Amino acid sequence: MRRRPSVAFWILVILLTVLVIAPLLWMAITSFKSIGESQASPPTLVPQDPTGRAYGEILTTGGQNPVLRWALNSFAAAGLHALVVVVVASMAGYALARMEFAFKRTIFGVIMLTLFVPGFVFLMPNYLLMDRFGWLDTLWALVVPGAAGAFGVFFMRQFFLAIPKELEEVAQIDGANAWIIFTRIILPNAKPALATLTVLSFLSNWNDFVWPLYVLFSPERLTLPAGLSLLQGAYTTDYPVIMAGATVAAVPVLILYVFVQRYVIEGVARSGIKG
C-alpha cells in the first residue's frame, strides 16, 4: 500500500505555496493603494482607502501609458513566436528521433552544445541580422530570433523517442509516407509535448525584457515588459501604477497555464522516459 503523505510534507507544500502566491497577492493589493499608502512604512496589508486610479491610468485608450497596446503587441509576438517554435522544433525533433541521415549524431551534439552558450552572446549577431533584413522596430524582430532554439528541438526529440515505433510501422505497411505519418500519427500523439512547448515558448517571449529594448524604438510598438519599464519615473515612483501594469501582464499567462496545466505536466513527464 502507498504511504499517505506525512504532516511535514503538507507543511512544506503550504510553505512553498505561500512563497509563490504571496508576491502575486502583494502586487495585486498594492495596485489598489494610493501613492502615499504604497510608500508607507510599515506597509499596510490591506488598502485603507482602495482606489482603482492606477488601472484607470494604464488602461485609458490613447493615454500616456498605452498598456493595452503593449499587451496586444505582446500577445501577437508571443503567439506567433510560439507557433513558429512548435513547427520548427517538432519537424527537427522528429527527424533527429526517427530518421537516419549522415552526421545525425554530430548535428544533434552541436545543437545541444548551443544550450551552454549564454543568451547575451547572440544579442549582437541577432541585432545585425534584423538590421540586414529590415526588421528592426517590427513584430518580426520579436518572432524570428530564437524560433529554432535547441531546447525545443531536444524536448520534442525526447518525446518522439517515447512514442512506440509500431505505430509508424503499421502506417508504412498501409502505404503512408513520412509526411502522413508525421502529421496524422505522430503529432496527434504528441499533443502534451506540443502544448507544453507552446506554453514555454509563449511565456519566454512574453516575459522577454532585454531584446525588445534593443530592437523596438517606437513607444507604441513596445511589448508589456519593455513598456512597463517606462512607468518608472525619473524622480518619483508610482508604485500602484507599476503594480497594476504587472498585474495586467501576469493575469493572461496565469489563465493560460490553468487551462493547459494537465498537458504541461504530462508532456514534461513523458519527455524524460527515453534518452
For this entry, give a set of tags.
mainly alpha, MetI-like fold, 275 residues, single chain, 0% strand
CATH class identity: Mainly Alpha
What string, H for helix and E for strand, traces the elements in order? HHHHHHHHHHHHHH
Mean of the pLDDT scores? Answer: 85
Please count the helical segments: 14
The quaternary organization reads as single chain
Structural class: mainly alpha
First-last Cα distance: 31 Å
Helix content: 55-70%
Shape annotation: globular
Task: Work out the number of β strands.
Answer: 0
Radius of gyration: 23 Å
Strand fraction band? under 5%
The CATH topology comes to: MetI-like fold
Main sheet record: none
Find the CATH superfamily.
Answer: MetI-like
CATH architecture: Orthogonal Bundle
Number of domains: 1
Low-confidence stretches: none
